[in-house]
Amino acid sequence: MTTTALEQELKEMIIETLELEDVTPEDIDPNEPLFVEGLGLDSIDALELGLALQKRYGITLESEAESSRQHFANLKSLAALVESRRQQ
Amino acid sequence: MTDLYLQDWRAWTPHREAAGESRLDTQDKPAGKAVPAMLRRRLNLIGRAVCDMLATLDPETNRIVLHASRHGDGERTLEMLYGLNEGDPLSPARFGLSVHNATAGVYSIASGNRCSQQAIAASGSEWAALIAEARGYLADGQSSLLLVFSDQPVPQRFAAYAPTSLSAAVALRVGSQPTGGAQRLVETMIPTGDSTLQPLDIIDWLMGSRQRITCAISRRGWQLEPVRS
Fold first, then answer.
1. What is the CATH number of the domain that holds B105?
2. Residue B190 lies in a domain
3. For B150-201, what is each residue's pLDDT tens digit?
4. Which of A26, A59, B14, B143 shows the greatest Cβ crowding within 10 Å of its Cβ?
5. Which residue among B37, B40, B93 places its CB closest to the CB of A48?
6. SS3 sequence, chain B?
7. Which domains does chain A have, with CATH numbers?
């Protein structure tokens, strides 16, 4: 499965925003979990990522909402979120 | 006064020559190997050095940590204040690592050491404060504990208000009993002395290029003497 331009953009944003040493875009599997397992991000990263989405795409998420958890599940779901909010 | 013995130490600064002293790390960028990569990415240079030194001095991970720094991470704090002034939202990661106990906290997470930790800032009396606190813990029954003293250059904007400081960190394991190779810390009251003591002064003293260190604010001087058998 090929990586879309948006997925590539999000990968680069994640690496830059979260200062991921030694991680390349190829290391991030779009279907693998971003948090705890998979990439291994933590709760501070979630807040940082939320901030980056707000700055770059104007997307505001509710931190307590179950939907936010789903959006942050993996890179694919994150890309779907950005795509849907862009079309609104 | 509770006796205090220096059992071992480690130090980091790129501003001195190691001259064969293996306890001094002079690399520009400390390895930070004691901390997993996902935690290490948030540490500054001092933080990487401190975590490595603590791991070496406390392989049992069961000692209290006292961490003194006059200014802490001034750069990170100042960047946040500039951002707030511009109306930018605060970065949670940057905020989390700007607090004075951040490095000790990361060490605690990485090592699993859940003992008490204390972060100290004392307007130039950091060394005196560290020793006073250490004596307190030893008097209270701790057999040994870890002392850290670190600082980095003050951000340019505030440089005129503080003495010049170079990046340096020193970690010491001290105890109430002499162990093999330990030295006794002798503290004396003095009428005057250096205006402030910085981590680099402590390193020079540990390396033997200074016999005594003094602090005018606390009116104290310190020397190391061999333990008589």
1. 3.40.47.10
2. no
3. 999 999 888 898 888 999 999 999 999 998 889 999 999 998 877 789 999 9
4. A59
5. B93
6. CCCCEEEEEEEECCCCCCCCCCCEECCCCCCCCCCCHHHHCCCCHHHHHHHHHHHHHCCCCCCCEEEECCCCCHHHHHHHHHHHHCCCCCCHHHHHHHCCCHHHHHHHHHHCCCCCEEEECCCCCHHHHHHHHHHHHHHCCCCEEEEEEEECCCCHHHHHHCCCCCCEEEEEEEECCCCCCCEEEEEEECCCCCCCCCHHHHHHHHCCCCCEEEECCCCEEEEEEECCC
7. 5-87 (1.10.1200.10)
